[in-house]
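Attaching the record inline, Q. Sequence:
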Amino acid sequence: MTDPKLSILLPVRDEGVNLRIMLQILQAVLEIPHEVLVVCDSTEDSSIPVVQELQTHYPSHLQLVINDLGRGVVNAIRAGIAEARGEFVLIFAADEVGPVLAISDMLELADSGCQFVSCTRYAHGGRRLGGSLVGGILSRTANRLFHRMSGCVLTDATTGIKLFSRDIFDALNLEANPVGWAVAFEMSIKAQMLGLKLGEVPIVSIDRLYGGTSTFRLGPWVKEYMRWFWWGVRNLRKSNRRQDEPVHVRVPTPASLIGMGDRAPREK
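Structure, as predicted:
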């Protein structure tokens, strides 16, 4: 197989059921050359037999990556990037179906020059459904405050749905502790501080549509996310990259969301 255009990283922990469904959806939706890298922290993960079973059926390259760098999403991303071959890398969770419909729009922004593209649940028609009630309230409130206080141009800095050029990854110099998806917050902040061309696509995020157990833990998550909240406020307010260039937004039309019609999504 020649190098694919897109490498999809799925950090998982015992997500066998969700992973089986997610891979079927990806297979149905994506037409571009791509690879899927499923990253597990342990050889005992229940997701592994599912990946091994589906490797013979998935038409694109499906690879199992064992993360030996330490537990957590941040280390899973590092391990996955080391194996990725695509021009662009997409990170998202196996328990979220909604973002799959946004992949084509994210790639359109990347092809137009955006080096870092994030999804948003809180602007341009995006929505967040399901998941922890407390986590949802904290996420929405924190993102709104951060957007206003820091000058961050992204309206949903904490979402884990990110697409970026593979060659910019080292410049992000990730330092987040392995707590939840705090690394995604760090990536949003540092992408703007680096002066990268940023893009944003609204999504309807449906958390754990097919069940499973969330890893959300209020105390550790709040502590780590608050660390990056105040770090970002301080550094973005001081940075001359604060709002030099507006974020490029691609809003899907209703027709494109359901796979009908040939009208292109609108870009702001």
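Residues 6-253 form a domain with the Spore Coat Polysaccharide Biosynthesis Protein SpsA; Chain A fold (CATH 3.90.550.10). The chain has one domain: 6-253.

More tomorrow.
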